[in-house]
Amino acid sequence: MSNGTVDGAPPEAASASKGARRPGARRRRPGELLGYVFIAPAVLYLAVFLLVPLVQGIAMSFTDTRLINPAGGEPVGFDNYAQALGADRFWNSLLATLLYTAATVAGTLALGTAAAVLVNRAFRGRALVRGLLTFPYAMPTVAVALVFAWMYNQSNGVFNRGLGVLGVGETGWLTDPNWGMASVVAATVWKVFPFVMLVVLAALQSVSAELYEAARIDGADALSTFRSVVVPHLAPTLRIVALLMTIWSIRRFEIIFLLTGGGPVEKTNTLVINVYRTAFSDQDLGLAAAIGALGLIVSLAVTCVFLLVERRESQREEAS
Amino acid sequence: MKLKRTVARLLVSTALLAFVLFAGFPVYWMLNTALTSDTELYKSGQDWWPHAERLPGVPDALADVPIGDWLLNSGFIAFGTTMLSLLLAVLGAYALSRYRFHGKGAAAFLLFSTQMLPEALLVVPLFALFGMLGLLNGLGGLVLANTAFAMPVALFIVKSAIDKIPYEIEESARVDGCPRYGQLTQIVLPLVTPSIAAAAVVTFFDGWNEFLFANTFLTDSEKWPASVGLATFVGQYTTPLSSVMAAAFLFSLPAIVFFVLMQRRIVSGLTAGAVKG
């Protein structure tokens, strides 16, 4: 396979970089061949461990493969897709994914941006505060799930104890169908908002002092400076962060799996959780692969919409 | 006017304090729980303030959980993931930053698309593939699977650092007769060491924290990393909870320390992939 990529290089580039390997050879620009040699290991690695499994997974979605015999399985055409699309479970799981994604993206962007704006100001102990605010992002997800499951605990958890002081009755945060999704979203937002904060903070710090100065001379107050100087400057960053947050929310597995496992009554059974449960609890690899392929289509569609919006917006910004 | 400014300052300070409490409380509560006995946790109720005088008892409490063995396994997986990822990432980053070749855009897209592929969708075919290759139930297989997801992030971190080095330095070395790989190892790598360190931190803790593949591929509990071992306690309150929380804190501490030290470079690399994709 590596020969294939190397052979793909045009002959003049190949001879140019052959010369480059000899010390002292003169060459005007980096040749193509060595570029292939350096990128090949990474690309081949991803081909073997991501593309091949992806293709295999899609192929598996057209078979009746079971967990007991993952290499076997007879072709069944579109049966798995028909079964997936015909079941309420799939549509419920699509809805759960969209709800989880929308709530997580909105929550992390709002909190992350607010935190970034606050930390961007100069004050004593700023480095310490910024460090503290990134703790959640650095903490391993399993540890986050452990402590949140304990805080959400119905009879001994700190949330119900705190609310009990206020005279509010106990809530089963992770077991009540009305609260399951909100509790998982809250834990996720807590974990991920520092990422948004750090990215937005970096963008804020690249707003030049002259811009602020110009706004001040024009007599703008803090709020209108923020609106007319800072917000336009942040817009491209916020769009990228929103894209990343969306993609990551659609694929996020661990925190949901550990906190609720898809429950209560499938309220948090997002597509990725659904795939995993279908494969390893129901042991139906074919159906799981079909749900997975459908999930991938959803995630690609969302990304395409984002990239289209991004292109239009950045063209508009360049024009104005 | 002066009053208005004082009020604004007060509001900002309150908001900052609220954020610090919000971000810090679960971490604090983990520590507090680690220092509380089970009778208090389940009966009389947990104190709001930690019993710092119980710190000396924590090492004994940790013996309830085989956290030492688990952390060794986590360390092995993390170290292997780091080494393999960095090797592939540094070479690839150099190629993407310094060479022009056909299919470069496609290569960059392939690298970015790993951000989009859910591990949970790939775990089924990878499970089948690893079953055929005899890689299930081994730490080596986990290194291979983790590297596929960690390496592209490392690559973008290193690439954005190489992009900032003026090409003229290598140019003059080349004129002086320095071969291509020498330009990479003797000129470029020393200049991007801080970013390679950041990439190492990211990939190390990717391997350290990883749960899904480890939980799916390992059947032998002796091979469990801490993520899988500790996950068995989520929502289970049979083992003393204080011991579990102490173990979880021990597991989290290195990740928190290293991430806080390296945060800026890590974040710039994570977003750089998206900008170029």
From TrEMBL, chain A:
Membrane topology: Multi-pass membrane protein
Membrane-crossing residue ranges in chain numbering: 33-55, 98-119, 131-152, 179-204, 225-250, 285-309
Domain ABC transmembrane type-1 residue range list: 94-306
Region (Disordered): 1-26
UniProt keyword terms in alphabetical order: Cell membrane, Membrane, Sugar transport, Transmembrane, Transmembrane helix, Transport
A GO cellular-component term linked to this record: plasma membrane
Main location: membrane
Intracellular or extracellular location(s): Cell membrane
One GO BP: transmembrane transport
Family: Belongs to the binding-protein-dependent transport system permease family.
Name this protein carries in UniProt: Multiple sugar transport system permease protein
Organism of provenance: Glycomyces harbinensis
From TrEMBL, chain B:
Coiled-coil parts of chain: none
Domain of life: Bacteria
One GO location term (cellular component): plasma membrane
Compartment(s): Cell membrane
Record's keyword annotation contains Cell membrane: yes
InterPro entries: BP-dep_ABC_trans_perm (IPR050901), MetI-like (IPR000515), MetI-like_sf (IPR035906)
SUPFAM superfamilies for this protein: MetI-like
PROSITE patterns membership: ABC_TM1
Residue ranges crossing the lipid bilayer per the database entry: 7-31, 76-96, 108-133, 139-158, 187-205, 241-261
Principal location listed in the UniProt entry: membrane
Swiss-Prot/TrEMBL GO biological process terms: transmembrane transport
Stated family: Belongs to the binding-protein-dependent transport system permease family.
Keyword vocabulary terms for this entry: Cell membrane, Membrane, Sugar transport, Transmembrane, Transmembrane helix, Transport
Native source species: Glycomyces harbinensis
Membrane topology classification: Multi-pass membrane protein
The keyword Transport is annotated on this UniProt entry: yes
UniProt name for this protein: Multiple sugar transport system permease protein
Positions of the ABC transmembrane type-1 domain: 71-262
